[in-house]
Amino acid sequence: MLRAKRAVVFCLFLVACSPAFAEQETGYLAVFMEGKKVGYSVHTRSVEGDEVTTSEQASITISRIGIPVTIEMTETSVETTAGRPLRFESVQHLGAMTMKVVGVVNDNGVVDVTSSSLGSEQKSTMQWPEGALMAEGLRLLTLEKGFKPDMKYTASLFSPGIMQAVTAKVTIKDKREVDLLGRVVKLTETTTALNMPGAGEVLSTSFVDDEMRVLKSIVPIAGMVVEMIDCPKEFALGTNDVLDLIDRMFVKSPEPIENIRSIAAITYTLNPGKTADFAIPSTDNQRATRRPDGKVILEVRPAAAPTGGTLPYKGSNPQLLEATKPTRFLQSDNEQIVALARKAVGDTKDAAEAARRIESFVAQYIDNKSLSVGYASAAEVVESRQGDCSEFAVLTAAMCRAVGIPSQVVVGVAYVQEWGGMQGFGGHAWTQAYVGGDKQDKGGKWIGLDAAFKSSHRGGYDAGHIALAVGNGEPGDFFNMATALGQFQIEKIKAERAK
């Protein structure tokens, strides 16, 4: 279950949703969830010559059934004094693992990206998103537009943590009295509506003083309210309270599901309430239909693996070709991953059989089902042989790609009869692999693979899985799961037993 991944998402939200308006050199904020102090956020800004360096650091510690996990993320941007992007860096300490990404923006708009983990480097290039700003660019835009009530403006902001630009709609409101840990001051209220990739709109609220210092921010995540409040350095970096989020990662089931492996399909009635932009993907394994009353009818029917498909994939579909390439979390060109994939596949040339063999291999390979891992890449999992469902998922996907099988990491919820005293649908990650198509991609299907459930003798992927997002295993993919978990309820379940 995705307990530590919730902390990963929280940190990503904190650094992405923290507008850096002020010229202050350093500011400290304590982070609160459910009224408990769980971490801190630090903003720094410095000017040297014609370069401005801005850094946002966030650290959160949560408990998973008594096991503490600390996630730390730092995003640093370097821009000209005119706000033109020059360089950026993202460092993510994900439990026992560390991932670092450095980007250099060239004059032609091409970004040279270096990702490093476990001493190995991966180089790639990307195009800088047109018009995207970083921290100093946003500060200058705010000064240009003016900091007056009813002022509204839109900006495209680049986040190094998710390596994408997000659209931010900023609204300046009136001044109001705000409680800062017992100190009541009059601050200007601002709201920022962020359109996160695949996650809909996230609305954060900040309170800013006359020097444009952000002294308090409120970010809603998965039905919770996360607050960041300005405070002395000693308090921000001081001892945290213990907060266990196990119940927040579950969606209640309207009824128990008995003998789930005997079920061919399940039709779910999902109620997103008043959330108009609630979205759920349709895949080869699930089909979502939105009714006029706003409710979503979701049929999950695991696709049967087509026969006759061979590996490696030789078609021309751009999406499928993309799903065979290495990424910073799915290092399918890693020598150890390639060797393990070939060992798992053996002499079979059948893509479906190869995918199943990889699923079974990973189920046995990860022998330490540790809850202390924040979020690890496939290469890190190969070394440590530990983790929870997301580590099973990224290694399975990377090994599939290593032998030419298109694959993706899926995040969502899956039914569990009992876990940590809870029953229902818990946050989960698994893999889907494309098999069976000919060179024209006719007859191929994305099939579900769940090495984590297979390792626990659940059997693997089944109709108890509800996908909320599909991607390349990037932490940003968890945004949709984190926002969606607070947006919908499961009202009804209709199971179709296998004949």
Description:
The protein is α+β, with helices and mostly antiparallel strands. It has two domains: 4-229, no CATH class; 260-497, Roll (C8orf32 fold). Helix content is 19%, strand content 43%. It has helices spanning 4-16, 135-145, 233-236, 318-322, 335-345, 351-365, 378-384, 389-402, 451-455, 478-485; strands spanning 26-33, 36-48, 51-64, 67-80, 85-94, 97-105, 110-117, 120-127, 152-159, 164-180, 183-196, 200-208, 214-221, 224-230, 250-251, 263-271, 286-290, 296-300, 407-419, 422-435, 445-449, 465-471, 489-497. It has a 14-stranded antiparallel β-sheet. A hairpin with a 2-residue loop joins strand 3 and strand 4 (67-80).
Q: Gyration radius, to the nearest Å?
A: 23 Å
- CATH top level of the largest domain is Alpha Beta
What count of structural domains? 2
The CATH topology of the largest domain? C8orf32 fold
What form results from the Cα inertia axes? globular
Strand content: 35-45%
Please give the number of β-strands: 23
Low-confidence stretches: 2-8
Tell me roughly what share of residues is in helical segments. Answer: 10-25%
CA-to-CA gap between the ends? Answer: 30 Å
Instruction: Tell me the CATH architecture of the largest domain.
Output: Roll
